[in-house]
Amino acid sequence: MSTQSFKDRNLLAVIGDEDTITGMLLAGIGQIGDHGKKNFLVVDTKTQVSTIEASFEEFTERNDIAILLINQHIAEKIRPTVDKYSQAFPALLEIPSKDHPYDPAKDSILKRVQKLFGE
């Protein structure tokens, strides 16, 4: 990748529950671009897995996103897709939510790092 492609990555994207997205929007990460493309997806009990996967794919393919945050309990719903993801950018981080604490045993990125260090 050229340095030009890194320079254009200046957004965070979030796939999360309502509380997580609300907090992130209050922190100022919200962006609605051309044609109403948002950098966040609010997931609730009615959100279909296919919608979550489509947003994940869209966010990981965009050239303006540097980091993709996803609630870990939502990542569990699309675990095969998350586990397949291996690109450096956007960086993928699994985060806890108010009702679902972080479990390091489920974090695919952490598992890769542990394997790299022989743990």
TrEMBL record:
Q: Which residues form the signal peptide?
A: none
> From the UniProt record, which GO molecular function terms apply?
proton-transporting ATPase activity, rotational mechanism
Output the Gene Ontology cellular-component terms. fungal-type vacuole membrane; proton-transporting V-type ATPase, V1 domain
Give membrane topology per the record.
Answer: Peripheral membrane protein
Q: Where in the cell is it found?
A: Vacuole membrane
Is Ion transport included in the keywords of this UniProt record? Answer: yes
Keyword annotations of the record: Hydrogen ion transport, Ion transport, Membrane, Transport, Vacuole
Chief location of this protein within or outside the cell: membrane
Protein family membership? Belongs to the V-ATPase F subunit family.
Q: How does it assemble?
A: V-ATPase is a heteromultimeric enzyme composed of a peripheral catalytic V1 complex (components A to H) attached to an integral membrane V0 proton pore complex (components: a, c, c', c'', d, e, f and VOA1).
Q: Which PANTHER family match?
A: V-TYPE PROTON ATPASE SUBUNIT F (PTHR13861:SF2), VACUOLAR ATP SYNTHASE SUBUNIT F (PTHR13861)
Q: Which NCBIfam families match?
A: V_ATP_synt_F (TIGR01101)
Task performed by this protein: Subunit of the V1 complex of vacuolar(H+)-ATPase (V-ATPase), a multisubunit enzyme composed of a peripheral complex (V1) that hydrolyzes ATP and a membrane integral complex (V0) that translocates protons. V-ATPase is responsible for acidifying and maintaining the pH of intracellular compartments.
Name assigned to this protein:
V-type proton ATPase subunit F
Which source organism? Jaapia argillacea MUCL 33604
Taxonomic lineage from the root: Eukaryota, Fungi, Dikarya, Basidiomycota, Agaricomycotina
